[in-house]
Amino acid sequence: MKDLNRRRLTREETREQTRQRLIESARQQVAARGFNAASMRDIAEAAGYSQGAFYSNFESKEALLLEVLKLHKLEESERVASIIDAAGDDIEAALDGLDAWAEKLSESPEHALISAELQLHAVRNPEFGKAYWAIMAEQRALYAQLAKRLFDLSKTPPPVALEDLAGGLMALERSMTLDRAISPGSMLSMVPVLLRALLDNQERSRA
């Protein structure tokens, strides 16, 4: 029996639902098949829509994949920020939280696969590369802010420019996640390990 009290979605809500389903479909299709092999038709059909629905929401596959990247980066940044905020002034609690986050992230190689596909496409397509670089620059800035919080909690200065540190750690995690996709359980996430080592080294240098 239909729920007569169920509210009908507005046109804007329906459009947003369609966009989100297409974004999730693109995430899955590109991770599984690669950027070139995952066609717009494939993405739309896997989400339960026609190709026309795709074009009514996104002008190209590149535009859709940039939305996938933006969404993941936002989710990731919010998750790490919440860990640090929850830890308050306890640096060890913050690092333990980052350990747990990195372990969970390493369980699914999906985003690392997508990032690798988009990075290669950015190298080969200058226009796409500009948009890709802008998103990654925003992400490095966010991670630099989070790194600053950790160094502030430890009351030590960072050893290098924070955005350089953030960019290096992001690249390392992407690479190692791909390695773990090839050989699951082959290695631990090195980002929390390196952050602990850097913080410990800075504390010793001040002693």
Give a quick precis of the structure.
This protein has 207 residues and is an all-alpha fold. It is built from 9 helices and no strands.
Describe the secondary-structure layout.
Layout: H1 11-33, H2 40-47, H3 51-57, H4 61-87, H5 91-106, H6 110-124, H7 126-154, H8 162-182, H9 190-206
Walkthrough of the structure:
This protein has 207 residues and is mostly helical. The chain contains nine helices and no strands. The chain folds into two domains: 58 residues, Homeodomain-like (Arc Repressor Mutant, subunit A), CATH 1.10.10.60; 146 residues, Tetracycline Repressor, domain 2. Helix 1 packs across helix 2, helix 4 runs antiparallel to helix 5 and helix 4 runs parallel beside helix 7. The mean pLDDT is 84.
Features:
207 residues; mainly alpha; Arc Repressor Mutant, subunit A; Tetracycline Repressor, domain 2; 2 domains; 9 helices; elongated; transcription regulation; transcription; HTH_TetR
The number of helices is 9
Q: Per CATH, what is the topology of the largest domain?
A: Tetracycline Repressor, domain 2
What is the strand tally? 0
User: How big a fraction of the residues is strand?
Assistant: under 5%
Would you identify the CATH H-level superfamily of the largest domain? Tetracycline Repressor, domain 2
Cα-based radius of gyration, to the nearest Å? 20 Å
Rounded mean pLDDT score: 84
